[in-house]
Amino acid sequence: MSPGVITLCFLVFAIIMFAWEKIPLPITAMMVAVGLTLTGILKPAEAFAGFVDSNVLLFMAMFIVGAAFFDTGMAQKVGGIVTKFAKTERQLIIAVMVITGLMSGFLSNTGTAAVFIPVIIGIAAKSGFSRSRLLLPLVLAAAMGGNLSLIGAPGNMIAQSALQDMGMEFGFFEYAKVGLPMLIIGILYFSLIGYKFLPDRKDDPLDTDSVYSKQADYSNVPKWKQNTALIVLVLTIVAMIFEKQIGVKLYISAWVGALVLVATRVISEKNAMKSIDMNTILLFVGSLALAKAIDVSGSGALIANTLIGALGSSPSPYILLFVILVLSAVMTNFMSNTATTALLVPIGLSIASAIGADPKAVLMATVIGGSLAFATPIGMPANTMVYGLGGYRFTDYVKVGVPLIIVSIVVGMILLPIFFPFY
Questions:
Q1: Between residues 171 and 310, the one the model is more confident about
Q2: Under 8 Å CB-to-CB from 413, ≥6 apart: which residues?
Q3: CA 421 to CA 415: how far, in whole Å?
Q4: Is a pLDDT exceeding 90 seen at residue 125?
Q5: Per-residue pLDDT for 214 more than 70?
Q6: Rounded distance, CA 311 to CA 301, Å?
């Protein structure tokens, strides 16, 4: 078989296994990387280059910085201040979405959701509001907030890695050109219309052994640790924003912050190591190997030419944009949003090359579409986390998520051609 056909076989295998999830996603990704090496499509150094990729190093450091912010109780304190001023259910939904969306732009969206779930459960118990009305807005805001910065979600970094191989890159806040308006409109949509689609069920009592039935006690955490965690997070983000001015790479700034937190014992060495999510890193590394193979084997060009052929010899950029957004949005609701982006990024680059489009425009559309994991409980980990806690059914996600996806695609169709034109 030709290298292109072999790579397509691995791509089909990855799609099936990512959707089926009988084997953990990172294991599937690494199986692909190993398989591409054994079949001679990639050299070992190419297949496993992701382990020393600057974006993987950035992720590892930010896991530690984020863990310190969560483990010291600073995240909960910030969330408590915001939600304290919300008196009605609708105000509380807006407050929860604002703080979750903003925080997930710079920290793990799964981690942000995990911190606020017990906070929301406690607020619901005290106020009499139903958990089912509050938890879905929480996780949807976490998904939308991932598009506020370069470090907001793994998919953002996968696209960045692909661009860097071409000598291009996204700026730290470039995703926010589309992501911030999308978050604002998403919150407005929920405050005006979307809240009507939220289920309203009587809360079942939580299991006594559930981690979410216990409110974490951070009263014993020294104030200086909380303040240090906040200051280091803010300074790290500021350093990243002014990367070019100070001449320090993003991952170096992140590691300075992480090492300061460990050296000052704000977070223990053990907890710092535990905070590094190897699942994300292995999925990232395996996905980069597949992307490299799709590029060098010619299979990406084959897929791109087939798709363009179906749309006509010179497809309208608006039709192509719509196809990319819809395809990404559909796929991301049935497999990991990181996996969706990883699969579509190399194909998107091939499409850009075939029609002479700006790669940044195609990849931005791919990432934005891949973040719209709103309509199923399996689209992203945070969606799954609240499934049982909120007493949700699959159809609840569909009723709430599908209209939000439609609104987001409309916003994307308006903003993407303005900020990221194909030509």
A1: 171
A2: 318, 321, 322, 325
A3: 9
A4: no
A5: no
A6: 15
- State which amino acid sits at residue 321: L
Question: Residue 419: in which H helix or E strand, if any?
Answer: helix 394-419
Among the listed residues 349, 422, 338, 348, the one whose alpha carbon sits nearest the alpha carbon of residue 373: 338
Q: Which of 299, 349, 302 is nearest to 324 (CA)?
A: 349
**Chain segment 395-415, per-residue pLDDT in tens:** 898 999 999 999 999 999 999
Task: Return d(Cα 65, Cα 107) in angstroms, integer.
Answer: 9
Would you state the torsion angle of the CA atoms of residues 287, 360, 367, 160, taken in this order, to the nearest 10 degrees?
40
* Distant-in-sequence, close-in-space partners of 356: CB < 8 Å, separation ≥ 6: 423
DSSP code of residue 298: S
Q: Kindly tell me if the per-residue pLDDT of 308 is higher than 60.
A: yes
| pLDDT value of residue 80 | 72
User: What per-residue confidence (pLDDT) applies to 343?
Assistant: 84
- Which tokens go with 136? 């879905």
Instruction: Give the other-Cβ count within 10 Å of 233's Cβ.
Output: 22
The whole-angstrom separation of Cα 384 and Cα 387 is: 5
H or E, element range at 206: none
Query: Considering just the CA atoms, what is the radius of gyration of the chain in Å?
Result: 21
CA 387 – CA 394 distance, rounded (Å):
9
* Phi, psi dihedral angles at 365 (to 5 degrees): -60, -40
Angle, alpha carbons 142-148-150 (nearest 5°):
110
How would residue 331 be classed by pLDDT, with cut points 50, 70 and 90? confident
Q: How high is the pLDDT of residue 207?
A: 59
210 pLDDT band (50/70/90 cuts)? low
Q: How confident is the model at residue 82 (pLDDT cuts 50, 70, 90)?
A: low
Per 3-state DSSP, the chain is made up of helix, strand and coil in percentages (nearest 5) of 75, 0, 25
Is 141 within 8 Å of 94 (Cβ atoms)? no
What is the rounded average pLDDT of the residues 118-136?
80
Tell the burial category of 243 from Cβ atoms under 10 Å away from its Cβ (0-12, 13-18, 19+).
middle
